[in-house]
Design goal:
This protein is α+β, with helices and mostly antiparallel strands and 178 residues long. It contains seven helices and seven strands, in the order E-E-H-H-E-E-H-H-E-H-E-H-H-E. The model is unreliable at 38-46 (pLDDT under 50).
């Protein structure tokens, strides 16, 4: 169990009702990543015990008001009244509030991967050489290009390259050169 003052809300809307559990942000995010088969991005994931990441072993319909979901409602919606199983479902399929610290760490990692992709997959059209990583970073900063920490970097790549073009002479390498 973790300290309630350090917990964030994991929320799932199901069957027209809202269900919430209070969790440790870092551990819940690691569990969510592991459950969604994205554990290759998170080297620190081992078996995460749901009991260790809960702040309070209750499922709420409104955690801010302290309204606890009734056992019959939990059983009707989740087909169980086991809080740990329900918490696991809420974390896997629901929304997880992220702390500012975790959000910033994710954004930095994602930015690093995107910059590396741009460096490998694009060139300066004049020289046919890749731009240095630092130049790409400075252009992204100058253009105020925002990285979405939760969106796949491949999905953001084309959009970011388009935004960089007014600031940096850049074009994609030929497919045969990749």
């Amino acid at each position: 169990m973790i300290d309630v003052s350090k917990a964030v809300i994991a929320r799932l809307k199901k069957a027209g009702k809202t269900f919430e559990v209070l969790v440790d942000c870092d551990k819940a995010f690691a569990l969510k990543a592991m459950l969604s088969k994205q554990s290759k991005q998170h080297d620190d994931i081992n078996n995460v015990d749901v009991n260790e990441l809960l702040a309070y072993e209750k499922v709420f319909t409104d955690s801010k008001k302290g309204v606890i979901a009734g056992e019959h409602i939990l059983f009707d919606v989740f087909k169980t009244d086991n809080v740990l199983e329900i918490a696991n479902i809420i974390i896997e399929h629901g929304e997880l509030q992220l702390t500012a610290k975790l959000r910033e760490q994710l954004r930095e990692k994602k930015q690093k991967r995107i910059v590396e992709l741009i460096h490998r997959k694009t060139v300066d059209p004049k020289t046919q050489l890749p731009h240095p990583v630092q130049r790409i970073l400075l252009a992204m900063e100058e253009g105020k290009i925002r990285i979405d920490e939760l969106k796949d970097e491949q999905l953001q790549l084309d959009e970011i390259i388009k935004k960089l073009q007014p600031l940096l002479p850049i074009k994609r390498k030929d497919k045969e050169n990749e």
